[in-house]
Write a structure and sequence with these properties.
340 residues; 2 domains; seven-stranded mixed beta sheet; five-stranded mixed beta sheet; 13 helices; globular; thiamine pyrophosphate; Transketo_C/PFOR_II; Transketolase-like_Pyr-bd; Alpha-ketoacid dehydrogenase subunit beta; oxidoreductase
Length: 340
């Protein structure tokens, strides 16, 4: 809970992440961290200051072997520690999928609940930064299919602070995906060291009545689209899931019941995306609410070009989202007129 006095301070996205890690390390001596780019802090945690405070035995740069980094984390987590591993870029994280998928996710099940795997893995995504095909993957849909994992996707400094604390305190392995382009974003965050956002709780970013926009790791683009839509008389409700596993489908269904229309924007490739899963759940459980087909605005099933102009048309953009919503609303309104 936030302090009743509502005291806050302004920090960047990366500072919010660093503060959450530091506060949890002060709170619990069994929280330890290692990974790539720890000292510079660009994709890490501002490791230089953490090393100064906590020492090299709790914060360090290991040899670059993603599989080994997570393998060691699985082992020390079984001994009661709460390791945090920074894998920096989603493409690099695939080297660690053996340990994440075959070990971390299965510990509790294989030991009949007698052991846990309270580790946190950070995976950054270089979307919209001209990272090219080797630095721009968005691999969360692959891990959504793995039982035993939790997956969160912070999108602002405030929810980054709250979700990181929840992830570190959780007894399940939690994968934290975020976008590097958010690193310098500033926002007021609560001072309360126990401010935690529960994993599995979506956020209604903007209320609306005509269409539900679900934003999967593209909150800025979706919010800007909603503002553009308001200028042409379309009221869009924007929902940021924040957690993909578990997913707060009830909040999405409640919104769709109100608006009757659903558009999902997702930075992942279209096939087997989080957007596809959300669309399937709403079709199964909320079909009676829908006034129009569900639409998805995703990245096409292509590798990401290094060219900035080409990259800019691959990922979901406000313009793409606006076009999809306008087409959907106009078509459904026209159909309802015909039916009447």
């Amino acid at each position: 809970m936030e302090r009743t006095d509502g005291s806050t301070h302004k920090v960047t996205f990366i500072e919010a992440r660093m503060e959450a890690v530091a506060e949890e390390m002060r709170r619990d001596p069994k929280v330890i961290t290692w990974g790539e780019d720890m000292r510079s802090g660009l994709m890490g945690f501002g490791g230089a200051s953490l090393i100064d405070e906590f020492g090299a035995h709790r914060v360090f740069d290991p040899p670059i072997s993603e599989n080994a980094m997570v393998g060691v984390a699985v082992g020390v987590a079984a001994l009661g520690y709460r390791p945090i591993v920074n894998l920096c870029v989603a493409n690099f994280a695939t080297y660690a999928f053996d340990q994440i998928v075959n070990q971390a996710s299965r510990v509790r099940y294989l030991f009949g609940g007698q052991a846990a795997s309270p580790l946190t893995v950070h995976i950054g995504m270089n979307t919209a930064l001209a990272g090219g095909a080797h630095h721009t993957d968005r691999t969360y849909p692959m891990l959504m299919n793995v039982p035993g994992l939790k997956i969160v996707t912070p999108t602002t400094p405030r929810n980054a602070r709250g979700l990181w604390k929840a992830a570190i305190r959780d007894d399940a392995p939690v994968i934290v995906y975020d976008r590097a382009m958010l690193s310098a974003r500033k926002e007021e965050v609560p001072d309360d060291p126990d401010f935690v956002i529960p994993i599995g709780q979506a956020e209604i970013v903007r209320e609306g009545t005509d269409v539900t926009l679900v934003s999967v790791v593209c909150r800025d683009e979706t919010t800007r689209a909603a503002k553009k839509l308001a200028e042409v008389g379309i009221s869009a409700e924007v929902i940021d899931p924040l957690s993909l596993v578990p997913l707060d489908i009830d909040t999405i269904l409640a919104s769709v019941e109100k608006t009757g229309r659903l558009v999902i924007a997702d930075v992942a490739n279209d096939t087997n995306s989080a957007a596809s899963h959300i669309a399937a759940l709403v079709a199964d459980r909320g079909y009676r609410y829908l006034r129009a087909p569900i639409r998805r605005v995703c990245t096409p099933d292509v590798h990401i070009p290094h060219s900035r102009p080409l990259e800019s048309v691959v990922f979901p953009t406000p313009a793409r989202i606006v076009r999809e919503v306008q087409t959907l609303v106009e078509a459904s309104d026209a159909l309802e007129l015909v039916v009447r």
